[in-house]
Design a protein that fits this description.
Helix content: 10-25%
Number of domains: 3
Number of helices: 16
Largest sheet: 8 strands, antiparallel
Number of strands: 29
Strand order of the largest sheet: 1-3-2-13-12-11-10-9
Structural class: alpha+beta
Strand content: 25-35%
Length: 662
């Protein structure tokens, strides 16, 4: 099956009454699958505990198609199930959240620290393990569940997991238990052992007994055994060239469910379950209190959402799930080779599960679902669409004074600019992002209230820049915004000109960073302040295009040319405290690394609500929310991180607070 072929959408065999507009939701999910090179997926949706839609998309294997009730691996979503199992034992007073796990008084008393082991190992509690706060930090030392200890440990235990735990008793923790969060597969492996120790049953059998209370009987734990066979389970696709623009879903890259390409044996408690989308939706609805049968008491379910003492924002990891909206929404995602998935209960009363049988570079699957649902008129997240002046325009504000274009391919740019101008809009900001070796443009359009004072020129070659700028300045037009980008290793420009009296500018369109930095101080000495600082990578080297304007000597300007996102956020808060306002910001790529170019000025005192690190569909959903509230944007950038397009956007606000995401 070629990527360019139509992915089949399998109709729901159970004939749940159709919702109007669901074909648009299906189309968005299928488009995402094509973009991410994913052959198959499944989706289920409920509202206030009632299943209202389920669907299958694409290929379950080289020969089969996905059905709405196909089984998929759910990877780390398995952790929610393990947490439910532990909390059931707490309800039954067989263990306590404060119970210690290791050492002579621990639940797993046969696991004790060695002379080299950290003394704090015996302080780890069940609660710490559920919260990922036990003290193991995989970012610093790696993820122990994936270590091969054959050459390290001479005496083997009964299973590879037992060998890993015994080995970890001789190691140090990276922080004190309960001090902070650090995601840990190892912690949930231990919780699976706790369940087996307390119940005397295998982890899988105990959990299946618990799930039967919801009449769920088709969930299984995956295995690499040749005898393992679940006829309704999909096969998993390993994409050998995930960054290729085109490819075939070749038969040789499909992995049967029992394939040893991905280790499944021993992963049950932290990543081994196999389930349908509707089963996970049913489980999450049970935690929300819907239905006659509940897995846990309401009080216990609420415990899963409690905010840890070390967390202070609106989002955190509770007990086996990610918590959002200050405890009103909760979810979990999962990813492994051949698998990407999410399940979420949203504060609106909607619950959904979305599974794919291949790795997704863009893992903001909940953002994808929110955006897709927002197009369905009969569902709570619906955002009414306004007729757009042009088909490539993504969002327009409710008062129609601002429009946002997202990831417009270069080949459509000229036509789009012409039609938006004819519709009465001026480009205020242009940003270029190179993705899959092609240039895409993000544009902020404002309603034209100054007829004839703005115009835009695109695809200006570097050798024509000075001539173009000179001709415009002679006619009273000066650069309002400038964006540089590369085509075939040459620098090009998109320029917004505005007719302005009494403006004195100095423009340097092609510099390396060293030349630019040397020029900065000299320009300030002569009373010119930096207002634009666009950077792009050309054939492995950065090119800086800068614009200076004559300003008052009392003004102070601070600029950073190419800093990391984390350093930018630190500097942003610092400049807010110094009463300096952001006057320019661009996120861009230098190779695989996202960097930021930014300028602050002391003359103005505006603050910004900012968002970064959000991928396309989640960003489009947030754009629609802002459009309904007529919240106008000043700056917009797209950049690539870990193979997925991310966005950074800035809206002016009247308070001194900022918001960020990464």
């Amino acid at each position: 099956m070629n990527l360019d072929e139509e992915l089949p959408i399998i109709c729901n065999a159970d004939r749940i009454p159709a919702l109007s507009g669901m074909h648009t939701l299906d189309r968005i999910i299928v488009d995402f699958m094509k973009e991410q090179q994913i052959p198959g997926g499944a989706f289920a949706l409920s509202y206030k505990g009632k299943l209202i839609y389920k669907q299958g998309y694409g290929k379950a294997s080289f020969e089969r198609e996905v059905q709405p009730d196909s089984l998929f691996r759910i990877a780390s979503v398995s952790k929610t199930l393990t947490a439910i199992g532990i909390l059931k034992l707490v309800e039954q007073e067989q263990i306590k959240l404060a119970s210690t796990v290791f050492g002579p008084k621990g639940i797993l008393s046969n696991y004790r620290r060695t002379a080299k082991g950290d003394r704090r190992l015996h302080q780890i509690t069940v609660h710490h393990l559920l919260q990922h706060s036990a003290g193991w930090d995989r970012d610093r030392v790696g993820d122990a569940v994936f270590w091969n200890l054959d050459k390290v440990v001479r005496k083997k235990e009964a299973t590879a997991q037992d060998t890993t735990l015994r080995y970890m008793m001789s190691k140090k923790l990276q922080f004190a238990p309960g001090k902070r969060h650090s995601y840990s597969n190892l912690g949930y492996l231990v919780l699976g052992k706790v369940i087996e120790q307390i119940t005397g049953l295998s982890y899988e059998n105990f959990m299946k007994g618990l799930l039967s209370q919801l009449d769920i009987h088709n969930m299984v734990v995956g295995s690499n055994s040749p005898s393992y066979c679940t006829k309704d389970e999909v096969e998993y696709y390993h994409n050998p060239s995930p960054n290729s623009a085109s490819f075939d879903y070749s038969k040789e890259f499909w992995m049967p469910a029992h394939s040893k390409s991905v280790v499944m044996d021993g992963t049950a408690a932290y990543g081994g379950w196999v389930a349908t989308t509707s089963s996970l939706v049913h489980i999450y609805d049970s935690l929300a209190g819907y239905g006659l049968q509940q897995l846990l008491k309401e009080k216990t379910s609420r415990t899963m959402l409690d905010r840890p003492t070390y967390e202070h924002g609106p989002e955190w990891y509770g007990l086996g799930m990610d918590v959002e909206d200050n405890g009103l929404s909760w979810s979990h995602t999962g990813a492994m080779e051949g698998t990407s998935c999410t399940v979420m209960h949203e504060k609106s009363g909607l619950t959904w599960a979305l599974y794919f049988n291949a790795w997704s570079k863009d893992m903001d699957l909940n953002g994808l679902v929110k955006y897709a649902i927002s197009t369905v008129s009969s569902l709570p997240l619906r955002q009414e669409s306004i007729n757009l002046p042009h088909k490539y325009l993504s969002v327009i504000s409710e008062d129609q004074t601002q429009g946002i274009t997202v990831m417009l391919p270069l080949i459509y740019l000229k036509e789009h600019v012409r039609l938006m101008s004819e519709a009465g809009y001026n480009a205020q900001w242009i940003n270029c992002c190179k993705w899959n070796a092609e240039n895409h443009f993000n544009i902020i359009w404002n309603q034209d209230n100054e007829h004839g004072s703005f115009h835009i020129m695109i695809n200006i070659k570097s050798n024509r820049f000075e001539e173009t700028n000179q001709r415009q300045s002679e006619n009273g037009y000066f650069i309002k915004h400038l964006e540089n980008y590369s085509i075939a290793d040459e620098v090009y420009f998109a320029i917004v000109f505005k007719k302005q009296p009494n403006v004195v500018q100095k423009v340097f369109h092609h510099q390396n960073p060293e030349e630019h930095l040397c020029r900065l101080d000299k320009m300030q000495e002569h009373g010119f302040h930096l207002v634009i600082q666009s950077l792009t990578s050309v054939n492995g080297s950065l090119v800086v295009s800068s614009v200076y304007e004559k300003a008052e000597l009392s003004e102070k300007t601070v600029s950073w040319t190419a800093i990391t996102v984390d350093n930018f956020l630190f500097e942003l808060n610092k400049q807010i405290q110094n009463n300096s306002s952001l006057v320019y910001v661009k996120f861009f790529n230098d190779g695989e690394d996202p960097l930021v170019s930014a300028i602050w000025n002391s003359k103005t005192n505006n603050n910004y609500w900012q968002r970064n690190g959000v991928s396309r569909y989640g960003f489009l959903y947030e754009l629609k929310l802002c459009a309904v509230r007529n919240r106008k944007m000043d700056y917009l950038s797209a950049y690539v991180e870990d193979g997925a397009v991310n966005f950074a956007a800035f809206w002016p606000c009247k308070t001194d607070s900022t918001k960020s995401s990464s």
